[in-house]
Design a protein that fits this description.
binds ligand LFKQWZQV, alpha/beta, about 725 residues, enoyl-CoA hydratase activity, eight-stranded mixed sheet, lipid metabolism, multifunctional enzyme, 28 helices, Enoyl-CoA_hyd/isom_CS
Length: about 725
């Protein structure tokens, strides 16, 4: 797991070997301890180089080991042994040096990086802190403000930035190991005292207290209840104010709390879940590893409204050539200007040239004749989309993949309007499409595995968390959102306020509660859908019967606000009021509160006191319950798919792992018991009726989440 060679006669070369990322597993740590010892005791060796195989230095501690009893040599003494060595040790950094990998490099006396390498201490994103001395060495090396920034955000820096910050000593465009060996030869015999970072004092910083106060405030605000970022600030404070040994002790104490926390488990689950969703599978048995994607060199986007523009930008930024089609000349010109602006701003942020030439604009659908893939993003209207699909089928070369960007329409129905339904998939982007991480790739029973593989690969290229899901109303994300929103409406009827509901959800960790979110996205969106479903009735009827529609409890509150022209932020009025249309600061709306009072009186509803716990249980368990239905129906292949969708697209707090992980943490029996409780109180609400999968999982002993897949298979085979 760590190979030893002597090169250039007097350099001991240690190569970490643990594919794919040379994580510091017990065997790798043992290998490092042994090979360092060997190099130091060999009188012919004057200096040492540590590198990683296959162009990657080290991806950090082996995260898979965290859940089990850790064995093997611990990291901290291993790194100390390197730092206190009497021969210079040089880290040759290619690919990544992350977490424990960078901490290992910080224990070395010198660091040489390849220009394409990335370095960072991302432990915070796993619910941890850099506890192999990273929180104590980095501030000593680069100063407190820069170290705070890196450690609390977990961001990766380029080699150029690492050089500028002083993390690395040299950057090379050539063979990094060769450069490190040359460097190691040049420094052999030099005094190492100034190179041992742990012996440095932290660089002086004026007004340290004010700095930590300010950073702590910022971190608390953005952490939304996550504890690791706060512990990171505390650890860096220890580096700035305590001698090294005491700082290390503080680092150890803080890590001990984080290491066993539910948040760390949730965040580490998210790390693996995000990778697991790439290994998609369909109910037909088709899978990621047996389905070859088609190459996509040229793509087209049809319809350049908000979604089409964002999708065009996302595609162009991957380096694809894109034909952007909009039939109306004025809209085409406006879109061209908007897309160019987005490309220019994005390129400026990333320090690259804007891909303006990658987009060709056209008013004519014939222009897409030779593309490999089309994403249709016209208005959400099945008749319009059907017409576009029929035109595309006539125009495109054989084999072109036809994708529809829809959040609600039936992908199968569209597919059935084309001569080649196997080439049709849904690509559900989230606005703004060039920014939002999530992409639902929606397959129907006739979508070919190759079409799914191609859309999934394209999503990955665009940097999206791409999740393959089956076709159903609302797919996964919006289907689960429906009971969540409905429960929030019911809570208002029963006595809650938008402020109370939102506060409970925001304290849970959502960036916005359901009502602030609804004001942002526009109340008219849901109104249009409910009208389409025949649920909206002109509103003077009163009493319970007026609130039962299509045989189930219905709250017309959202419809009534829309009838008043209160569409949310865009009209300046919604569940809150705003200074002016378009303004974002939500304020208490006295009108809304008297409206709610009058509504309750009209319907004979008596307001009662509702607490945060009830808000969370009713909104979240209703949403989770729908997640179990989705798993049972085979719409999502596993709980990870649902959780990645919710964390990357719906603001579910990452440190709570996603709705299904949260249910697993709360305990399935408890979720079932609370759903049964609320269902008894509200028998006319079907979404509170516990899913049969949830019942069966509880009956089978509530297996842990990583065993649900197996349990579901077994339960299905028993049906
Ligand atoms: C005392 C505690 C001390 C230290 C704490 C730590 O060091 S915590 C770990 C800190 N390190 C990280 O957070 C890095 C995590 N990894 C990554 O960011 C990326 O994997 C990386 C290294 C940039 C490579 O990205 P790439 O896109 O090339 O590959 P991918 O992410 O798909 O990973 C490939 C497979 O490797 C597995 N993996 C990656 N890192 C680790 C790790 N640190 N431990 C265990 N496994 C790791 C990853 O799950 C993938 O596995 P697969 O089975 O193929 O899905």
């Amino acid at each position: 797991m760590a190979e030893y060679n002597r090169v250039s006669e007097c350099v001991g070369l240690i190569t970490l070997r643990n594919p794919p990322v040379n994580a510091l597993s017990a065997a790798v740590r043992q290998g490092i301890v042994d090979t360092v010892q060997r190099a130091l005791s060999d009188p012919n060796v004057k200096s040492v180089v540590i590198c990683g195989q296959n162009g990657i230095f080290c991806g950090g501690a082996d995260i898979k080991e965290f859940g089990s009893n850790m064995t093997g040599p611990p990291l901290i003494p291993m790194i100390h042994a390197i730092e206190s060595a009497n021969k210079p040790v040089v880290a040759a950094i290619e690919g990544s040096a992350l977490g424990g990998g960078l901490e290992l490099a910080l224990g070395c006396h010198y660091r040489i990086a390849h220009s394409k390498a990335r370095l960072g201490l991302p432990e915070v994103s796993l619910g941890l802190l850099p506890a192999a001395g990273g929180s104590q060495r980095l501030p000593r090396l680069i100063g407190v403000p820069a170290a705070l920034n890196l450690i609390t955000t977990g961001r990766h820096v380029t080699a150029a930035e690492a050089l500028q910050l002083g993390i690395v000593d040299q950057v090379t465009d050539h063979n990094t190991v060769a450069a490190a060996v040359k460097f190691a030869l040049s420094v052999a015999g030099r005094s190492l005292d100034p190179r041992r970072i742990s012996t440095h004092p932290c660089p002086q910083q004026p007004d340290l207290d004010a700095l930590f106060e300010e950073v702590m405030q910022k971190v608390r605000q953005s952490a939304r209840g996550a504890i690791a970022p706060i512990a990171c600030v505390q650890a860096v404070r220890a580096a700035a104010t305590l001698p090294y040994a005491q700082g290390m002790e503080r680092e150890r104490e803080l890590m001990a709390t984080l290491f066993t926390s539910g948040q760390a488990r949730a965040l580490q689950y998210c790390f693996f879940a995000e990778r697991a969703v790439g290994r998609w599978r369909m109910p037909s048995g088709a899978r990621w590893d047996t389905s070859k994607p088609r190459p996509v060199h040229k793509a087209a986007v049809i319809g350049l409204g908000t979604m089409g523009r964002g999708i065009t930008v996302a595609l162009a930024q991957t380096g694809l050539s894109v034909i952007a089609v909009e039939t109306q000349e004025k809209q085409l010109m406006e879109a061209k200007q908007a897309i160019s602006g987005m490309l220019e701003r994005g390129a400026k942020r990333r320090g690259v040239a804007p891909a303006l030439d990658g987009v060709i604009y056209s008013q004519n659908i014939q222009a897409v004749a030779d593309v490999d893939l089309v994403i249709e993003a016209v208005f959400e209207d099945i008749a319009l989309k059907t017409k576009v699909f029929q035109q595309l089928s006539a125009v495109c070369k054989p084999g072109t993949l036809l994708c529809t960007n829809t959040s609600a329409l039936d992908v199968d129905q569209l597919a059935s309007e084309t001569p080649n339904p196997e080439l049709v998939v849904g690509m559900h982007f989230f606005a703004p499409a060039h920014v939002m991480k999530l992409l639902e790739v929606v397959y129907g029973p006739r979508s070919s595995p190759q079409a799914v593989a191609t859309a999934m690969q394209l999503g990955k290229k665009m940097g999206k968390a791409s999740v393959a899901v089956g076709n159903c109303r609302g797919f996964v994300g919006n289907r689960m959102l429906k009971p969540y929103i409905e429960e929030a409406f019911f809570l208002l009827e029963e006595g809650a306020t938008p402020e109370l509901v939102d506060q409970a959800l925001e304290e849970f960790g959502f960036p916005m509660g359901v009502f602030r979110m609804s004001d942002l996205s526009g109340l008219d969106v849901g109104w249009r859908v409910r009208k389409g479903d025949g649920l909206v009735e002109p509103g003077t009827a009163s009493g319970r019967s007026a609130r039962i529609r299509q045989g189930r409890r219905y709250s017309p509150l959202g419809d009534l606000l829309c009838e008043e022209g209160h569409f949310g932020q865009k009209t300046g009025r919604g569940w809150y009021q705003y200074d002016k249309p378009g303004s974002r600061v939500a304020r208490f709306d006295p009108w809304l509160h008297s409206f709610l009072g009058a509504y309750r009186a009209q319907h004979g509803l008596v307001a009662r006191r509702i607490d945060h716990q009830e808000v969370l249980e009713r909104c979240l368990y209703a949403l989770i319950n729908e997640g179990f239905h989705i798993l049972d129906d085979g719409i999502a292949a596993g709980p990870e798919d649902i959780d990645v969708i919710y964390v990357s697209g719906y603001g579910w707090p990452r440190h709570r792992g996603g709705p299904m992980f949260y249910a697993n943490m709360v305990g399935l029996a408890k979720v079932l018991e609370r759903l049964e409780h609320y269902q008894q109180l509200h028998p006319e609400v079907p979404h509170l009726q516990p899913s049969s999968l949830l019942r069966r999982l509880v009956a089978s002993g509530s297996p842990p989440i990583h065993k649900w897949g197996e349990a579901i298979k077994k339960l299905h085979s028993q049906l």
